[in-house]
Amino acid sequence: MTTIMTVLRSGGEYRAEHVRALHAQFCDEPSACLADVPVAGVSVLRQRYRWPGWFAKMELFNPDLIDDDILYFDLDTLLLCNPSVYMNDDRFRMLSDFYHPEKPASGMMFIPHREKARIWSQWLASPERWMRECRGDQDVLERICGRDVARFGEMVKSWRVHIAAPGMPGYHDVRSKGDGTIPANTDVLCFHGNVRPWDVLALLPEYLQFTDYPSA
Does the pTM exceed 0.70? Predict the structure, then answer.
């Protein structure tokens, strides 16, 4: 069985409302949020550690947290498909970094239960050292798992790289290659940098009207 999971670490830009908006896109698939605060309307697994920022995601690899496989999404993600299509391959999978595709990225992951213990044991042996030496969880995972990790395919897109055009939120004059429209073969839309799904509500009403995102 697979459970879709998100992570909320309170005190930053993300709030319970963002969790609810993303979980509303999961098409009634089993889901939970690993959080340090309650989230009304969402099943919450309480964080057992107080690791800051991105490192809070490392607790997903605790094999005692949940017995299921995990399909994980960052909170700044928009789903344009039923997420169950990403539950049919039981390899440990990550994104390819949208700027440096040779590097794995952790904004979306499929974590088979059988893979959790080996990653968790290496992390838990010295989390303070990992946090000193790495910028975030995906650097930790690259060092533990290498760059040969299986990747999600081309139907996972970046707003900044594949959609944003001049004058649009998130546009970058070097990184952005889009024409302002979402390509037809898009299943998952990832937001990163300085733009979030709720920043572009007016540009994507046909996609976002059902998500009930809060304003920025």
Answer: yes
